[in-house]
Amino acid sequence: MSDRPDFAAIAAWIPEGASVLDLGCGDGSLMRYLKDARSVRGYGVEISDRDIVSCIANGVSVIQNDLDAGLADFEDGSFDFVILSQTLQAIRHTEPLIQEMLRVGREGIVSFPNFGYWKNRMQVLLGKMPVSSDLPYQWYNTPNVHLCTLNDFEEFCRSCCITVTARRVMTAGREVGLMPNLMGSTAVYRFQRGI
Amino acid sequence: MGNSVGIVRAERASFEEPLAFRSGAVLPRYDLVYETYGKLNSDRSNAILICHALSGHHHVAGVYADAPKSQGWWDNMVGPGKPIDTDRFFVIGMNNLGGCHGSTGPSSIDPETGRPYGSRFPVITVEDWVESQARLADHLGITRFAAVIGGSLGGMQALQWSLAYPDRVRHVLAIASAPRLTAQNIAFNDVARNAILTDPDFHGGDYYQHNVVPTRGLRLARMLGHITYLSDDAMADKFGRELKSGQYNYGYEVEFQIESYLRYQGDKFAGLFDANTYLLMTKALDYFDPANGGDLNSAFAKARADFLVISFTTDWRFSPQRSREIVRPLLHNGRRVSYAEIASAHGHDSFLMEHPHYFDVVRAYLDNVGREVSA
């Protein structure tokens, strides 16, 4: 199906035929996956020229846009889900974008690499910035400006009055139950505006 | 020049059924000239219509037999193996009604008077053009286009196709275009028109009878237009402050290279183009507004096509912002739409130029269209 375990996790939350906006959609493979698995309608948003061509070739409708400039082209409540998959850590204006996600969509989904994963902690303990398949960059060329742990993200949601409605934590495609902030390499959250 | 459609020939279709214009005027009969490239498939589903911009015409690609340098205006885009691939698509270029390249226009002879229409030629709108294009499609036996494609004013025609004939077009490609002009854009057109209208040789549009041409006005109009089609940076790169003779002459003759270039462009254009057609084309641009001053979201509710909208970063005459104004009502209506903003240095003219990423975007999109129509 897909080589990205978070795709299946995301698809599991999305009902058939839902409308979806995928922010930082890359080459459109998540949208493609969701179209095939869930017959979703919607768009990807991407800034990279090369990815725009790949999305179009993939048959994914894509809008070229800088996420840090907001989502002004999209109307309030126009999507069932707004997804930010493995992009959160590269966003400059994090809180405004999360708020924009919940303006445009009824629910939000984010996935990100957990900086608190024990292998990352080990590398820091050994005196190096973490480099792994989830974090494949060196400190000097990384696009990641806002890395966080599961605890950090959940605290952020609380402070922004956002309610997390579901969470999946994975390592190498396997579900992590115990000590997720230490044992999980990737997290996927489903959330909505808090009460 | 490799992978060209090769030698092409213009065709002419005559229409005897009167065409009622939006203005209320009626044209009792008219001719449309067009060219076609590639082969229409058996179920007639692979036709693409190319709509031209202000100064364009039906000669989109290829060359004429007697003129090896007569490449069509979009020859880089249209041809075998090119983004608009004539191996897969049946591509039609036509000269718009009111034009000056063979279709009936102000310089054509009015059969009623035996003289050129001149001032009697009705003011035409984008809606009227699409109506005439639909009749050409009928004439060619095409009930539904795989795509209608246009840049600038051509993009407006492509958009209008999706509104006037939602079921006759599968895909619309609107490049460097706008859903309606802004005040600034209308203002540029008005200055251009004034240059022509105030030329003493204009004679109210009936200059043909006086055996003169309002060359000065047309030349000024083109010079102004040309400035707005280029970017500040492109002009600076190409000309900077370079002087023809290397020194100031403290007079009003041509001194800077840019002045020389603009005059050359103005002269070349004024020798080839008809001033009345220029007036008509700019007016069609100004009038186009699918929402009639209202809400574009409801105007685009009728559209059934899929869309590709493309803009260029340095285009300030039809800026990316204007293209986003096309995208927004399409998103509102849940249409399938992709939008690409191409980083290009060449301003509005970018849509006519070869640019690898721009071409990749068009190619990727039309690849899928090609699969759709051959399936």
Would you give an account of this structure?
Chain A has 195 residues and is an alpha/beta fold. Chain A has helices at 5-13, 29-38, 49-57, 94-104, 118-125, 150-159, 180-183, and strands at 19-23, 41-46, 62-64, 79-85, 105-113, 162-171, 174-175, 186-193. Helices cover 31% and strands 26% of the residues of chain A. In chain A, strand 2 (41-46), helix 3 and strand 3 (62-64) form a beta-alpha-beta unit. Chain A is globular. With 375 residues, chain B is an alpha/beta fold. Chain B has helices at 126-139, 153-164, 183-197, 215-229, 232-238, 257-272, 275-287, 296-299, 320-332, 356-374, and strands at 11-15, 19-20, 26-27, 30-37, 47-51, 78-79, 84-85, 90-94, 109-110, 115-116, 145-151, 169-175, 306-312, 337-342. In chain B, the strands form four sheets. An eight-stranded mixed β-sheet of chain B has the order 1-4-8-5-11-12-13-14, sandwiched between helices. A two-stranded antiparallel ribbon of chain B has the order 2-3. In chain B, helix 1 (126-139) packs across helix 2 (153-164), helix 3 (183-197) packs antiparallel against helix 4 (215-229) and helix 3 packs antiparallel against helix 7. The longest helix of chain B has 19 residues, at 356-374. Chain B is globular. The relative contact order of chain B is 0.13. The mean pLDDT of chain B is 96. Chain A binds chain B through residues 19, 41, 43, 49, 52-57, 59, 61-65, 73-75, 78, and chain B through 306, 308, 324, 327-328, 331-332, 334, 336-343, 357, 360-361, 364-365, 367-368.
- Gross morphology of chain A is globular
What is the count of DSSP helices of chain B, taking H or I runs of 4+ residues? 10
The rounded Rg of chain A comes to 16 Å
| Content of β-strand of chain B | 15-25%
How many helices of chain A? The count is 7
Along the chain, the helix and strand elements of chain B come as EEEEEEEEEEHEHEHHHHHHEHEH
Count of individual beta strands of chain B: 14
What structural category do the secondary elements of chain B indicate? alpha/beta
Q: Helix content range of the residues of chain B, please?
A: 25-40%
Count of extended strands of chain A: 8
Mean pLDDT of chain A: 95
Please summarize the sheet with the most strands of chain B.
8 strands, mixed
Strand percentage of chain A, roughly? 25-35%
Task: Give the strand order, joined by hyphens, for the main sheet of chain B.
Answer: 1-4-8-5-11-12-13-14
